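[job 0417] fold request received: site-specific DNA-methyltransferase (cytosine-N(4)-specific)
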Amino acid sequence: MEVPRFVGEFWTSRQRQASSIHEISYRACFKPQLPAFFIRLLTRKGDVVYDPFSGRGTTVVEAGLLGRRVISNDVNPLSEILCRPRFFIPSPSEVEERLRRVPVYTGARAEMDLSMFYHPDTEAEIVSLRNYLNRRRQEGTEDDVDRWIRMVATSRLTGHSPGFFSVYTLPPNQAVTPERQVKINERLGQKPEYRDTRAIILKKTKSLLRRLELRERLNLLKAGRTGLFLCCDARHTPKIESGSVNLTVTSPPFLDVVDYATDNWLRCWFNGIDPQDISKRVTVARDLADWCGIMQEVFCELYRKTAPGGWVAFEVGEVRRGSINLDEYVVPLGLRAGFECPGIVVNLQHFTKTSHIWGIDNNNYGTNTNRIALFRKC
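[job 0417] inference complete; emitting structure tokens
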């Protein structure tokens, strides 16, 4: 069979400066311009946009900004922690006031050794904040301000600049083990210095809101009030009504390229989540046949949820050093589920630092060449 391929620069980071509200780091996420392209092209205001592998929430946040209704799903509970708060945004003054109410216990320590990441006073602030937020959640008193602070703090735990709580380490979308951080410290001759966690949280809050217009903020609030934020296996989402989704824009896990549980061990600790539980829930396919079997079930579930005339934009990359083009395997899966495939959109992007860290050459090995298989339900 032949499927048309449309190759070009359909979106770039220069085409439309993305909203600052997107600037939450997460492994293996695409740029907001990708879902924006399809949301603008294939939906109208009030339509439902869905992402079954939501990650940090790029698709649904962009859909909310554009006045669409949203459904977010991810088997990893960190997804909702990073996504949902951006629909219910507090003011910086509310965040500042709430942070003042968080008691800091001098000498508070985590149950594991984190001295290679944090100054003792910084660790005390982090542990105190963690205990405060988790207690509020357990008591049922956690509100939108708490959830916002939790999201921002989760995104600031480790990183490669003074804007993070930790000493210099890899970028925040690339977690390192304590043992590896010890080696990084030795190699750079560094030791953790004190970081004011409250000041960092407040600064990041203001940064996230710096290019957010009032209209966009109201759109997000409206979308959040009617939206669904689920933590389910993408193959079984009974809370989503049949024929209710106008557009799905998603990027599924690519075989065993990313270990989401290992990458998020520190974020899991801060939020009281068992990373081993995530490991059990996140399905990682070790070979192409297994991956196709899983995605076939996902497509059948997508077909059930998609409205007549609705669309699915399924982003995949080249994996295993360019030896596997997943779009060639995805198209038959969508057709078997009942969809039509009008074509594959190939967007060529420029080389990025993140791709260099991953060992990916531009347009050869993966995430720099976005390949989107486009499906339609008749």
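[job 0417] notes: Strands lie at 5-8, 48-51, 69-73, 228-230, 245-250, 306-316, 318-319, 324-325, 340-348, 369-376. The first helix runs from residue 33 to 42.
[job 0417] exit 0
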